Amino acid sequence: MDTRVAIIGIIVEHMDAVEELNEVLHEYGKYIIGRMGIPYRKRNIHIISIAIDAPQDIISALSGKIGKLPGISAKTAYSNVISHES
Q1: What spatial distance separates the first Cα and last Cα of the chain, rounded to whole Å?
Q2: pLDDT for 5-26, tens place per residue?
Q3: Of 13, 31, 54, 66, which sits with the fewest C-beta atoms within 10 Å of its C-beta?
Q4: 62 φ, ψ to 5°?
Q5: Model pTM?
Q6: How far apart are CA 79 and CA 7, in angstroms?
Q7: Which residues, in sequence order, are CB contacts of 58 under 8 Å at separation 6+?
Q8: Is 46:12 a contact under the CB 8 Å cutoff?
Q9: Are 4 and 86 a contacting pair, CB within 8 Å?
Q10: What does the pLDDT look like over 24-75, one tens digit per residue?
């Protein structure tokens, strides 16, 4: 199975969706390398970055689920680092 390293950038505009976001991230927890969150109080938003190492379809599914949450947007940047695991 091929895995890729990627970063998912998340902007949280509505705090009502944070619980749902955390549930989705927990569901994919075994693929997550690390997570960093920064509250930007001046704009009343939160910025989160997720580093992930997973198969392409898993990364796309996670990013898609996050992007469908109300008040949350997500974009993914992929590295060219691909691991061939069996």
Answers
A1: 6
A2: 999 999 999 999 999 999 999 9
A3: 13
A4: -65, -50
A5: 0.90
A6: 8
A7: 28, 31
A8: yes
A9: no
A10: 999 999 999 999 999 999 999 999 999 999 999 999 999 999 999 999 999 9
The two tokens of residue 40 are: 């930007």
| Residues 6+ away with beta carbon under 8 Å from 43 | none
For 8, the token pair is 């998912």
Residue in the structure block whose two tokens are 């920064």: 38
What is the residue type of 11? I
Cα–Cα distance measured from residue 73 to residue 11, given in angstroms and rounded to the nearest whole number: 5
Which two tokens mark 6?
A: 């990627």
Structural domains of the chain in order of their starting residue, each with its CATH number:
2-84 (3.30.70.1150)
